[in-house]
Automatic annotation (TrEMBL):
Belongs to the HMG-CoA lyase family. It comes from the Bacteria. This is Hydroxymethylglutaryl-CoA lyase. Keywords: Lyase, Metal-binding. It comes from Actinokineospora fastidiosa. GO terms for biological process: ketone body biosynthetic process; L-leucine catabolic process. SUPFAM superfamilies: Aldolase. PANTHER family: HYDROXYMETHYLGLUTARYL-COA LYASE. GO terms for molecular function: hydroxymethylglutaryl-CoA lyase activity; metal ion binding. CDD domains: DRE_TIM_HMGL. Residues 20-288 form the Pyruvate carboxyltransferase domain.
Length: 312
């Protein structure tokens, strides 16, 4: 059944943006955490179907060490077999210069470096200390910017860390500011383990903007472990954020943070934004069909409430 037939009510609320850019991470954050390696053909079809559903930013894969994330060791093959769609960008994760070399060879134009707000996660995810991560990213960002690439910076563990516990908003703001000062154009604040609640989101966004990162350069990246991702998104939109990361069907997680579950599902996000009259350009029915197909491929139901309601 289609979203319209179900009767999605549309009521515009005050103090919200007219348009939101969805940064779709399903092919990267979603598939990096699968037990089995998803075949290249399936990844390419997934990306094509996401573009066909109207998503215009598709984080496609990662040029990380293939031993660290075997699920994405086929990054170059996926990009080579992709039929790029006009108006769609395909950013990839790049941790270091080796990854940048591989990305440039594959013709990539948009990359994302990914830092940590905490010492322990920097060690576990990057094999670097908190300080060493900046030394690793610095030449990557400098070279990428000189080549005319657009560079996003992620900060992980912005709201809590499974080893260190609470994370201070000022610490997140400082890490973010250091990455932005390198020449990144956008800062995506990751709730890697999904523990944030809306007041906490406000506190972190205020800390980040207070140190000079403009709100229109900030994106939010919520995992939905505790079911808070949509409320957190609404809190961020009310403070002026207009780029939201999500994953088709709610796939996702981080292999180096065991308590991380799926990202905010793109369908759940689009249902809310459609209901608020906020433009995304996404066709919810095509997207739900794509996630229902992916759930069949992966052999388990989608965790997205909206996919289950529309296609269950
Ligand atoms: P390392 O072992 O310290 O690497 O790993 P190294 O610099 O010591 O190099 C060792 C060998 O690896 C060298 O080869 C390098 O050439 C090779 P050798 O000289 O020994 O033959 N190497 C590479 N090969 C291919 N591609 C590369 C690469 N780099 C080095 N890029 C490294 C350090 C950063 C590479 C490793 O820790 C890594 O790959 N980590 C990535 C982990 C990851 O992908 N995690 C998931 C993404 S983050 C996430 O999901 C969070 C996010 O969603 C936001 C949120 O939710 O919060 C973004
Ligand atoms: Mg993530």
């Amino acid at each position: 059944m289609g979203a319209r037939e179900v009767g999605l009510p549309q009521v515009v609320a005050a103090d919200l943006p007219e348009r939101v850019t969805i940064w779709e991470v399903g092919a990267r954050d979603g598939l990096q955490n699968e037990q089995a390696v998803v075949p290249v053909d399936v990844k390419v079809e997934f990306l094509a179907r996401l573009a066909d559903a109207g998503l215009t930013t598709l984080e496609a894969t990662s040029f990380v060490h293939p031993k660290w994330v075997p699920q994405l060791a086929d990054a170059a093959d996926v990009l080579a077999r992709l039929s790029p769609v006009d108006g769609v960008r395909y950013p990839v994760l790049v941790p270091n210069e080796k990854g940048l070399d591989r990305a440039l060879e594959a013709g990539v134009r948009h990359i994302a470096v990914f830092g940590s707000a905490t010492e322990t996660f920097a060690q576990r995810n990057l094999n670097r200390s908190l300080d060493e991560q900046f030394a690793m990213f610095e030449p990557v960002v400098a070279r990428a910017v000189a080549e005319g690439l657009d560079v996003r910076a992620y900060v992980s563990m912005c709201f809590g860390d499974p080893w260190e516990g609470p994370v201070q908003p000022a610490q997140v703001a400082a890490v973010g500011a250091r990455l932005m000062a390198m020449g990144c154009s956008q800062l995506s604040l990751g709730d890697t383990i999904g523990v944030a609640t809306p007041g906490h989101v406000e506190a972190v966004l205020r800390a980040v903007t207070e140190v000079g990162t403009p709100i229109d350069a900030v994106a939010v990246h919520f995992h939905d472990t505790y079911g808070q991702a949509l409320s957190n998104t609404l809190a961020a939109l009310r403070l002026g954020v207009t780029t939201v990361d999500s994953s088709a069907g709610g796939l996702g997680g981080c292999p180096y943070a065991e308590s991380a579950t799926g990202n905010l599902a793109t369908e759940d996000l689009v249902w809310m934004l459609d209901g608020l009259g906020i433009h995304t350009g996404v066709d919810l029915d095509r997207l739900a069909d794509t996630s229902a197909w992916m759930a069949t491929v992966l052999g388990r139901p989608s965790p997205s409430r909206v996919v289950r309601a529309l296609r269950g």
